[in-house]
């Protein structure tokens, strides 16, 4: 609530009532009107029906406009920029640069040697130790179209973990239940929906990719069918996902056929 003064000098108390759930059914507003009118019988009480914005204003001009139009709001800066600033404190950029540089270097080498036909490369890193757990190339062929590099990388990490358990004679099935818990994954290209889900099932915490897969990707807001798997509310895990934006880096990563599921 806030207090204002009208042109005759009378003090006015403004109060917002809002339903707990938004409902397009106009009867829900009418029932609120009826309830309040029933409880507060006062001829000086005026009830107005207004629709107000659901989200925070994203710049100061909108903030000032809404302050006049709806309700006084104190501008505290762009919440998205503040969120990004908070997030950036948790990101070790020198490690990110190092892994992106590694992707560029491996891409160039692969282009020179033509060892793998497809240019996609994936690096899995355990950020607690900065240890690289897998470097995997895309080995899909027309005979084996489901050989996606993310899935191959998870298979490799799984085999290594199995060997470790055998060598160390670990029989506790509950130990390290999630294979890639909180790992960071760096990719030359945005993963497909299947691989985005494989990353989710493996419980990674961060994905960084360089080139978007606009037709087949499972992450980007404008990719594929806009699944944005990493933040889907219907799934039981979420991870951060970023596209690494750098024109020089972008130029050094080979394009792929837009129909390929990375
Ligand atoms: Zn894939």
UniProtKB/TrEMBL annotation:
SUPFAM superfamilies from the UniProt entry: Cytidine deaminase-like (SSF53927)
Residues covered by the CMP/dCMP-type deaminase domain: 98-222
Keyword Transport on entry: no
GO terms under cellular component: cytoplasm; nucleus
InterPro entries reported in the protein's UniProt record: CMP_dCMP_dom, Cytidine_deaminase-like
Pfam family, one: dCMP_cyt_deam_1
Protein family membership: Belongs to the cytidine and deoxycytidylate deaminase family. ADAT3 subfamily.
Protein name: Tad3 protein
Species this protein is from: Pichia kluyveri (Yeast)
